[in-house]
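Target chain:
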Amino acid sequence: MPYLIADELPKETAGKRFRAALARPGIYQLPGTHNGQAAIQAKQAGFTGLYLSGAAMTASMGLPDLGIITVDEVAFFIRQIVRSSGLPLLVDGDTGYGEALNVMHMVRTFEDAGAGAVHLEDQILPKKCGHLNGKNLVSPQDMAAKVAAAKKASRDIVIVARTDAAAVEGYDAAVARAKLYIEAGADAIFPEALITRDMFARFAADVPGVPLLANMTEFGKTPFYTASEFEALGYKMVIWPVSSLRVANKAQAELYAAIRRDGGTHNQIDRMQTRQELYDTIGLHEFEELDASIVKTIVPEGIPQI
């Protein structure tokens, strides 16, 4: 049924449901979902949690991933994904949109919008995708202060601290930063842009006791590993951050080229989601049935006489 009905809404907060998922056996698989439609389709494929990537958000807006969108713009994406899927959502919080107070505002806004977890990174602005060169980091102490602020602002939302130090300061610095962030209150650690199987395994051995997140982005520095391979290496979560957007964008580019070339969409029909498939995905008929089941408003015919 549509998530307009109170009985169909989750009874626990997204943060509690995210924590419960982390406590279950196996690796928590979190595919990137760049809008509500993608979220529904990921849920229908059987996933029980989702990820919202800053790179996918900004790209869908026609912008680069340089930390230039606002907290409220991200909250719009959070609300549509959570509303459409009802699943716990991990959100990319970039650098926290400022210093400690800004981080606290971000955490409260994201949690109020329905996020179950947020990750915060130790780059300085303008930040970059973790798999690009030229990144610069804040001091470990400044990042630890942001993590502490995030934890102080949270109710149930899971705080994931991301470190980009492996590519900037070296592996040992990444481990040292991760341990400091855990001391500051991080619930989980995201070591970005590890480049070998050995590095993933070593990091898991060197940073025990908290869930670790692996980023399986395409066209980056990390070789392709499956979810089960990451699990065997000691990781509790894995994300595919921009995959859905990449596939959608590639299909759209081919569609527009075909229209321009052929003068219509007739050669692309077999690649399209049909009208019925679209309506089934978004639950159109369920919404119609819900609307018809609601009692009509009775308008008074006149003014009551005293």
In short: The two ends are 45 Å apart (CA to CA). Strands lie at 28-31, 50-52, 89-92, 117-121, 158-163, 188-191, 213-215, 237-240. The first strand starts at residue 28 and ends at 31. The chain has two domains: 11-242, 250-293.
